[in-house]
Design brief:
mainly alpha; 6 helices; 69% helix; globular
Length: 150
């Protein structure tokens, strides 16, 4: 059983990455464009350039999109995880200790999910893997240039 699960691990990780990236990008799109309920659930948006909301929304949209595609996954997940740690400790945690009390569950879960992706990479289905495989194939090709005579 463990053997089968181990073989499926890159695929499960790839699906995890896709879902987390999509959900994270949706938060950014809601805050920036007022879609999917908007920033406060009322269709509103955050004002451009306001700290920290607008910057967090940009990180969510861009970072979530990159994680979703599996492109620069580790770097995008690192920045995204950090932004969610900031959101939790500066916005939510001063209200109460536990995430269930302070409304910070999403920030805490996204922070840890993104941190996991920093260490695991994109898994299957990611553009990172596709580009790496493509680069490896090109490196294996013999050079098409004529050798230089000494």
């Amino acid at each position: 059983m463990t053997e089968h699960l181990n073989r499926a691990q890159p695929y499960a990780l790839g699906l995890f990455r896709i879902v987390i990236g999509l959900l994270f990008a949706c938060h950014g799109a809601a805050s920036l464009f007022g879609v999917l309920g908007g920033a406060g659930g009322d269709g509103s948006t955050v004002d451009a350039g306001t700290w920290p909301g607008w910057y967090a929304a940009v990180i969510q949209l861009v970072g979530g999109g990159l994680v979703l595609l599996g492109l620069g996954t580790r770097a995008a997940a690192f920045i995204s995880s950090g932004s969610m740690a900031y959101a939790y400790f500066k916005v939510h945690q001063p209200e109460a200790l536990w995430p269930i009390e302070n409304g910070g569950e999403a920030s805490a879960i996204f922070c840890w999910a993104m941190l996991l992706l920093v260490f695991t990479g994109s898994g299957a289905f990611g553009l990172d893997r596709l580009l790496a495989a493509r680069g490896a194939r090109e490196d294996d090709k013999p050079s098409e240039r004529a050798p230089i005579a000494a």
